[in-house]
Specification:
Oligomer: heterotrimer
Number of strands of chain B: 24
Radius of gyration of chain A: 16 Å
Radius of gyration of chain B: 34 Å
Largest sheet of chain B: 5 strands, mixed
Structural class of chain B: mainly beta
Number of helices of chain B: 0
Strand content of chain B: over 45%
Helix content of chain A: 55-70%
Number of helices of chain A: 5
Strand order of the largest sheet of chain B: 2-9-8-4-5
Number of strands of chain A: 0
Largest interface: A-B, 18 and 20 residues
Largest sheet of chain A: none
Distance between the termini of chain A: 15 Å
Order of helices and strands of chain A: HHHHH
Distance between the termini of chain B: 95 Å
Order of helices and strands of chain B: EEEEEEEEEEEEEEEEEEEEEEEE
Shape of chain B: elongated
Strand content of chain A: under 5%
Shape of chain A: elongated
Helix content of chain B: under 10%
């Protein structure tokens, strides 16, 4: 059985999840309004061809919640999405500020998780390295990749939010 | 990736047709062999292409002509059916509008406070396209036929129809020629040329008008008189100016009385014959004398009480 | 040129002495051989040096000590007599003031609209010298003992005693240490260090309070009641907040009644027992719940009429 998580860590993490989800929805609304890309489900095929991954969170599922694995997957997933958001840079001048903020918030939340893993003594010696990021060759791919990546991030965070509530 | 849209031309005049093609490469693994290529313009219903065929290399190509593009900006999507929905393969941005009309009513004023020549113009009707305006010019001689050195382009701030040519690009007391060039993806146009010497278009401010309180002992106490002094607007002191004074009694419907050909600075000026009202409003303006120039606006009204 | 002044040190504490030397090279042709070197401080009368002598290479040198420099800025001139006047050979600028005291009252607020941490401080007494202030910081852990990465220096705009650390230099939800360094030509000083997590010092704005017009049919028409709704300030929606409502009848000297521990958003809230006046003023404020934070200011007063 793993050590209980401090209440302030859980409260701060839940606040960070809400903060990221809020910026994520703003960005999705902007992508829809500006580029008429409003249905992520229409971009799945493109996502496959571009190699946009979905981060696993099996350790955080309500049926098989495993604290250490959940924290580790949460951290790796956040690093993955931070990399994806970075690869979207140059998506458009209008969206760049919101995208930068989202990417910083994701990176900061990853640090919060990593710190807690270190405090619990369950952090691996070295942080996971960044996996290869898709190369976007057109403005459309960058925008469509953005819609897909952010919608995957939103559902990833929803699972994380439920897990954090369970852990609280 | 799987699909790729090509449009020609990417920018059209509003209402003109647009021809687009969407090609699906054979190595697009996820798709079945003969995908039905479909199109969607903005939020309009999905529609098939005009024609779909094979290219020698196995690429599937669908062609569509949009007879009249009535959006100034719109997205065109290429899709394929997928389970009971659709998958987007590519998206292209369509732009439509008009080439720029010639900018008109170009006028310039020399600002002595900032030492810059500020020119403004009317951009002409909306083009619906990103359109850039640049103020261009060259130095010239008396008749403006001679083309001397070009002055650096003056690029206005975003969405502003004026531009300020800094002092270092001006040759004062010499004629120069300026005009405005407008450019967008459908063409460019130029305004008529303006021939001017910056110092002939100075934006002059009115003189500083002041009441003079003449001590009772100094002057024979004649009723209906008042005394005032004025001096020119400081930055224009080096310019010889001629001024006008106007005054009117504070009465409903009263007329202005004009005193012309006054010097630009006066330490003491007497005005008499003011019997119509207890209070008179006075204003002054000046103009560069014996050389071209514009009148300054009238100075703010000065309310004075003539002697009783 | 002929003369050259050297001062050491060029900047002194106000009231301290200054030692200056003026040398005239032998090849300064225009001057007669043994010119009497003189000095002038600012507009004070001309005075001779303390001592004038030859240097081995024939240079004439005059030395002067100004016992107490009481100007914060002054010019020192080296002159020689010339016909019945003087000739200036060189001029040096003297500066005097104080080393900076430690900046005090350093405090920071996180602005959610600009996503920046704005810190402000009190610079301390006037130094009379050009003094630069820099906000410095490093990332840390819970107890702020650990020194992590340094954040880039934050240089305030001219003469401002605050600085805004941009979002990209902040690691939210982790502690960081900030302090201010002041530096001028006479020395430097640092403020006490501040240990904070930017998200614990958010500048919170009050919630949006609105009257609810409850249809007559909906509610049993109990007198002295009113209905309102509120929602949190948009940029802070992600933060769990707890709020307080206060209300007072519009009567001279009336007291506020406080309702605490309210949620940060409420679609419909009923307030009854309001019989003291026809109009009541209501205000709300919120604070981050269960985590550190500051109270928002009270919202602007909302005037409402309870049911009669």
């Amino acid at each position: 059985p793993s050590l209980p998580l401090p209440r302030s860590f859980l409260l701060k993490s839940l606040e960070q999840v809400r903060k990221i989800q809020a910026s994520g929805s703003v960005l999705l609304e902007q992508l829809c309004a500006t580029y008429k890309l409003c249905h992520p489900e229409e971009l799945v095929l493109l996502g496959h061809s571009l190699g946009i991954p979905k981060a696993p969170l099996s350790g955080c599922s309500s049926q098989a919640l495993q604290q250490t694995q959940c924290l580790s997957q949460l951290h790796s997933g956040l690093c993955l999405y931070q990399g994806l958001l970075q690869a979207l840079a140059g998506i458009s001048p209008a969206l760049a500020p919101t995208l930068d903020l989202l990417q910083l918030d994701v990176a900061n939340f990853a640090t919060t998780i990593w710190q807690q893993m270190e405090n619990l003594g369950v952090a691996p010696p070295v942080q996971p390295t960044q996996s290869a990021m898709p190369a976007f060759t057109s403005a459309f791919q960058r925008r469509a990749g953005g819609v897909l990546a952010i919608s995957y991030l939103q559902s990833f965070l929803e699972t994380a939010r439920l897990a954090l509530h369970h852990l609280a | 990736s799987c699909g790729h849209i090509k449009i020609s031309p990417p920018v059209v005049r509003l209402g003109d047709p647009v021809l687009a093609s969407c090609t699906i490469s054979p190595n697009c693994s996820k798709l079945d062999q003969q995908p039905k290529i479909l199109w969607r313009l903005q939020d309009e219903p999905i529609q098939p292409g005009d024609r779909q065929h094979h290219l020698p290399d196995g690429t599937q190509e669908s062609l569509i002509t949009l007879p009249h593009l009535n959006y100034t900006q719109a997205f065109l999507f290429c899709l394929v059916p997928w389970d009971d929905s659709f998958q987007l393969l590519d998206q292209a941005e369509l732009l439509a509008g008009y080439p720029p009309a010639s900018p008109s009513n170009l006028s310039c004023l020399m600002h002595l406070t900032t030492n810059s020549l500020v020119c403004q113009w009317e951009p002409g009707p909306e083009t619906h396209l990103p359109t850039s305006f640049v103020l261009k010019g060259f130095r010239s001689r008396a008749d403006c036929q001679y083309q001397g050195d070009t002055i650096p382009d003056c690029v206005p701030k975003k969405r502003q129809n004026n531009c300020s040519i800094p002092r270092k690009n001006l040759l004062l007391y010499q004629n120069m020629v300026v005009w405005v060039q407008a450019k967008n993806m459908l063409g460019s146009s130029v305004s008529p040329k303006l021939c001017l010497d910056p110092m002939d278009v100075v934006k002059l401010e009115p003189p500083m008008l002041q009441a003079l309180d003449i001590g009772p002992d100094v002057v024979s106490h004649q009723p209906g008189c008042l005394w005032l002094s004025w001096k020119p607007w400081k930055p224009s002191e080096f310019m010889e100016q001629e001024c006008e004074l106007r005054y009117q009694p504070q009465l409903k419907g009263a007329n202005w009385t004009l005193v012309s050909h006054l010097p630009s600075s006066k330490d003491q000026f007497e005005l008499c014959g003011l019997h119509q009202a207890p209070v008179y409003t006075l204003q002054m303006r000046c103009i560069r004398s014996s050389l071209p120039g514009f009148w300054s606006p009238w100075s703010p009204g000065l309310q004075l009480r003539p002697t009783m």
